[in-house]
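ZP: hey, is the zinc ion complex queued? I don't see it on the tracker
AM: it wasn't, my bad. submitting now with these inputs:
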Amino acid sequence: MRHANPARGNTRKPFGFKRNRLPDPAEYYHQQGLKLTGGGEWKSAVCPFHDDTKPSLRGRLDTGGFRCMVCGTYGGDVLAFHMKRYGLRFIEAAKALGAWEGGR
Ligand SMILES: [Zn+2]
């Protein structure tokens, strides 16, 4: 028996999220006005998500991960940061960061 269905198993899409096109975390956070200072993997910066007076935000320059010790805002990469800071959905943030290919 032959199935007349078209190839439904083919989920390849001509567009989508390209993680490798996300900006470099160090460059991105610099552009966002964050001054990440300190040694070690986790740097410190003044948190943009609450009215911060001292560096409460911890961020990584390798993965882009961040977490605020005061307001609890956290995420795993610069995309998550962009979504939270500008209230964007995943795709909107990916497009804004140049990490979305094709489609609309
Ligand atoms: Zn905070």
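AM: back. The mean pLDDT is 90.
ZP: great, adding it to the tracker
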